[in-house]
Amino acid sequence: MKRFYLDGRWGQVHGREAGDGPSLLLLHQSPLSGAMFDPALPLLAAAGFRAIALDTPGFGLSDPPPNPASIPDHADALLTILDALGLTAPHILGHHTGALIAANLAARHPARVGKLILNGVPWLTPDERAHFATFRFAPLDPAPDGSHLTAAWAQRLRASPGWSNLPAMHKHVTEMLRIPDRYHWGFIMALSHDMTPDLAAITAPTLVLSNSGEDLYAASRRAAAHRADWAFTALDSGTHDIVDEQPGAWAAAVTRFLNS
Question: For residue 121, what is the domain's CATH number?
């Protein structure tokens, strides 16, 4: 695996890649980074793909926009990165917040997407949107007694029912602590976007990928049922840390669709 920086709309964008062959761009859930795909990158590379995982601007090691940007803003900013990478129409996989960006890009710029994988689709009902709106939407200010550290841990515990992978939990809490002033931006942009028009407009061959233990499983099933022409695959159990929990099964589901 190698790392790189590219000049983007709001500054530098950090990424990592592995392998050669057809390109697969991977967009992470927020407030994480492209590091969420580290367990799968060598598997995707071994399957014959050039797997590229970006840090969304404002997350990981990528420079942030001046204010929380919208999903369409992030999709448009991604076009600059596709050009910098020399990618005309790569396959694109987006996980949770990344799925919103990927779907919006595919809906508005169909010529720039090969196959599309929406991994955990935030197509939320009003009740689901209200539930996620109860999560903390404020900076994580450092406290002299270190209580902000346990607050970050508690926040992710609440967002991860059924979790079992301690290294993954630790890794992803440290991602929150890397950007304490803006880790909550991902929730803001996700809950501010209605992806219904995007789902209707997508023309790319699409797979909805989920797993039965994750918090967007029901929403993902609804999205797949909404588009009868789309494929649907669900892995057993797991949480939204499925790439850490089941990297082999996850990568196999991805490559099976891309090779179909």
Answer: 3.40.50.1820
Q: Which residue has the tokens 């598997």?
A: 43
Per-residue pLDDT of the chain (260 residues), as tens digits, is 999 999 999 999 999 999 999 999 999 999 999 999 999 999 999 999 999 999 999 999 999 999 999 999 999 999 999 999 999 999 999 999 999 999 999 999 999 999 999 999 999 999 999 988 887 668 889 999 999 999 999 988 888 888 889 999 999 899 999 999 999 999 899 999 999 999 999 999 999 999 999 999 999 999 999 999 999 999 999 999 999 999 999 999 999 999 99
Position 159: which residue type? Answer: A
Helix (H, G, I), strand (E, B) or coil at 75: helix
The pTM assigned to this predicted structure is: 0.96
- Number of domains the chain is built from: 1
* Longest CA–CA separation in the chain, Å: 55
Structural domain boundaries enclosing 94: 2-258
Distance CA 75, CA 107 (A): 10
Spell out the long-range contacts of 67-74 with Cβ–Cβ below 8 A and sequence spacing 24 or more. Answer: 68/182, 68/185, 68/188, 68/189, 69/10, 69/189, 70/189, 70/192, 70/193, 71/100, 71/101, 71/104, 71/189, 71/190, 71/192, 71/193, 71/195, 72/104, 72/108, 72/193, 74/101, 74/104, 74/189
User: For residue 33, what are its two tokens?
Assistant: 């980074």
